[in-house]
Amino acid sequence: MAKIKPPLSDLPIKTADKGFYNGFSLDVTVTSKLAVGGLVLWAVAFPEQAGGVLGGLNTFILANFASWYIYVMAFFVVVCLALAVWPAAGKLRLGHDDERPEFDNFSWFSMMFGAGIGVGMLTWAVAEPIYHFRNNPEVIQGLADGESMNNFMNAYKYSYLHWGFSAWSSYAITGLALAFFAYRRGLPLTIRSSLTPLFGSALSGPLGHLVDIVAVIATVLGVAQTLGFGVEQFVAGMSKIGIGDWLVTAEGNASPAGIVVALVVIMGASTLSALSGVGKGIKWLSNINMGLSIFLLAFLMIFGSTWFGMQALFMGMIDYLIALPKMLFTVYHADGTETGDALSGWQGAWTVFYWAWWVAFAPFVGLFLARISRGRTIREFVLGAMIVPSIMCFVWFSFAGGTAIDMELSGVADGAIFASTDGAKIFTMTGLMLGDVLGWGMAVIIVILLMTYLVTSADSAVLIVNTINAAGDEGPKARPHIIFWGVTLGLVVAALLLVGGLTAIQTAMVIGALPFSVVMLLMCFSLFKAIYRDGLRARHGVTSITVELPPAE
């Protein structure tokens, strides 16, 4: 039998040793900047051409890779559950066996939730159940009636599908792979390190550079998608509280001036927060937005449609869990029939879009989760990062969306929530609940909460991009580049919003996510191989933990 060797614990990545790029990988940083900068310049200089090319690529991907997105996301859910129940994996700690977590559970969940999905909650907790209440696969197939009680649970089954275990499993896979190889192997906290069991030291060169570049581009486009939704809602909120009608167009969407003002405020604050680091600004903001989120959720649970919310939460979760295996693996194909084409169109616009969004968000959220999860066991990490945030999403959707659906069914809203833009739906709902004066006060709270979520997501993303570019180093030398990426991220959102609206951002994000989905699939095989090999090493007395304990504080 071949001798069992210790795992790879050294992955040198060439970085500049002087100048502006001191400490950064020139191959990754410069190439990423050129790619993202080129996209911005192209979109601004040739908007029609850019829109046509991006639209054509998007159509091609949705037509040919929809099945890939469906099946690969289903695989991530299965892998997470397998790692949690596999005894050899679940008990392993992300670090030394006697290490303990750096952050307490409340701060851990707050940072994880705020960076991962917080912004989307304020837009989609009301907008998505309302949409699926009107139309979903059951309605398309004639099995339920839109806007009726027999479609109520279907609205939640599909909302939970998109915001539940699938979304968080993609984050958990990426975060776990990064944390495992950084805190047990001592490898750089960057994307390429997670593939070392498959490709070894070859990742020090061009192959590793390519992996990290793909991750940076996916991160920028994924966060741009989130910020795009957030900017639209932030502008709607500022208009609601009376800052200025010039912020929105006659159709209720953000005006060019509103987009620019919102991005200057959001990206300015996020860049300042990013400069303070994870342990200060981001942690502080995350705790604030968790507190405000609890306040808003408590308000909806007490003063909203409590009974509707309880039904949506418990009955919706049961329906979701029963239907999950089928929903995870069902692919609708356009077959030339009205029903088949409608089902395929719905899945492309919702499920495939969401799967691409979560994949594009995964390098950012995953690396951030790894950064804040040292010392936790694999089982604790997987269950904590996959199940707890999913349940929080379910609670939000049930009470926020349930209240909106009840108000429309009872006639209180009289179609007003249906008619509002996605970002304005929550303001319309709370305004109808509270009246003009108290509704204005609640709108202010929601705008502040949205601001903290947007800043948390943006500043976390900036730090993560710089960490990848700096070969896993989070040192203070990244400060000039934090400012650069803060400005660049704002420009990406502004350019795509101004030339093509949210559709342009969605298109770019779906395209950018595809190559990183391949990287994530490889991460799964890499993790299984590493854990299996560690078991063999343990039986032969070969150590598999090659990283030093962190210094005591």
List its salient traits.
mainly alpha, 19 helices
C-alpha end-to-end distance: 44 Å
The share of residues in extended strands comes to under 5%
Tell me how many strands there are. Answer: 0
Please state the overall shape, judged from the principal axes of the Cα atoms: globular
- Helical content, roughly? over 70%
List SSEs in N-to-C order. Answer: HHHHHHHHHHHHHHHHHHH
Assembly annotation: single chain
Q: Could you give a quick summary of the protein structure above?
A:
With 553 residues, the chain is mostly helical. The protein is built from 19 helices and no strands.
Structural overview:
This protein has 553 residues and is mainly alpha-helical. Helix content is 75%, strand content 0%. The protein contains 19 helices and no strands. The radius of gyration is 23 Å and the shape is globular. The chain starts with 25 loop residues before the first helix and ends in a 14-residue tail after the last helix. The mean pLDDT is 85.
Question: What secondary-structure arrangement, pairings included, does this model have?
Answer:
Layout lengths: L25 H20 L1 H18 L1 H20 L1 H4 L14 H12 L1 H17 L2 H4 L11 H12 L1 H19 L12 H4 L6 H35 L15 H21 L1 H26 L2 H24 L8 H35 L5 H33 L5 H4 L5 H45 L9 H61 L14
Helix pairs in contact: 1-2, 1-11, 1-19, 2-19, 3-9, 3-15, 3-16, 3-19, 5-13, 5-15, 5-18, 6-8, 6-11, 6-16, 6-18, 8-9, 8-14, 8-16, 9-15, 9-16, 9-19, 11-12, 11-15, 11-18, 11-19, 12-13, 12-18, 12-19, 13-18, 14-16, 15-18, 15-19, 18-19
Membrane topology: Multi-pass membrane protein
Protein name: BCCT family transporter
Organism: Salipiger mangrovisoli
